[in-house]
TrEMBL record:
This is Phosphohistidine phosphatase SixA. Transmembrane segments: none annotated. Its EC number is 3.1.3.-. PANTHER family: BROAD-SPECIFICITY PHOSPHATASE YOR283W-RELATED, SEDOHEPTULOSE 1,7-BISPHOSPHATASE. It comes from the Bacteria.
Length: 155
C-alpha cells in the first residue's frame, strides 16, 4: 500500500492577467507552513509532484523545507486545466518505477485536485479549502484508492 496526499496550494493573490505567476499571500504562506508541519507529524512525504505555477511552488517549498523528501518533480499535468486521468496515469507510472517511495504528495490547484481524488477514488469529489490535504490509501496492484480524510489548516 502507498499513501497519496493531494494538496491544494495556500491562499493566493487575486487573479491577474497571468494566472501562472500569482504568488501566495502572507496568509497562504502561513497555511502552507502549518500543513507542512502537519504532514511531517502525520505522513512524512517522500516524493512530491508540484505544479509549475508560482503559488503551488511556494506551497511545496514550505513542505520541502521541513520534510525529508527524496524525489521532487515539477509536473505540468497538475495545472488547473490539466487532465486528471493523464496525471494519475503518470503518477502510477512513477510509483511503479520508484517502489521504495511509499508516500507521495501532489501540490496543485482547484479544480484538478478534486478530479485527482475522483480518479483514484470514484464517487469522491471533494472541495478543497486552500492548503487542504486529502489522504488516500492506494493499492498499486489493483490501482484503487480509498479516501481516508480531508485535512485543512486552522488559518
Amino acid at each position: 500500500m502507498k499513501t497519496i496526499l493531494i494538496m491544494r496550494h495556500g491562499e493566493a493573490e487575486p487573479v491577474n492577467a497571468n494566472d501562472e505567476s500569482r504568488p501566495l499571500t502572507e496568509r497562504g504562506v502561513n497555511q502552507a507552513k502549518e500543513m507542512a508541519w502537519w504532514l511531517k507529524g502525520h505522513y512524512k512525504p517522500q516524493a512530491v509532484l508540484v505544479s509549475p505555477y508560482i503559488r503551488a511552488q511556494q506551497t511545496a517549498q514550505q513542505v520541502l523545507a521541513i520534510n525529508d523528501v527524496t524525489y521532487v518533480e515539477i509536473c505540468k499535468d497538475v495545472i488547473p486545466t490539466g487532465n486528471a486521468a493523464f496525471a494519475i496515469d503518470y503518477l502510477e507510472t512513477l510509483i511503479s518505477l520508484n517502489t521504495q517511495l511509499n508516500i507521495w504528495l501532489i501540490v496543485a490547484h482547484m479544480p484538478i485536485v478534486s478530479y485527482l481524488v475522483e480518479q483514484l477514488c470514484p464517487q469522491q469529489l471533494p472541495i478543497f479549502n486552500t492548503a487542504a490535504v486529502a489522504v488516500i490509501e492506494y493499492d498499486e496492484v489493483t490501482q484503487k484508492g480509498v479516501f481516508k480524510s480531508m485535512n485543512s489548516p486552522s488559518l
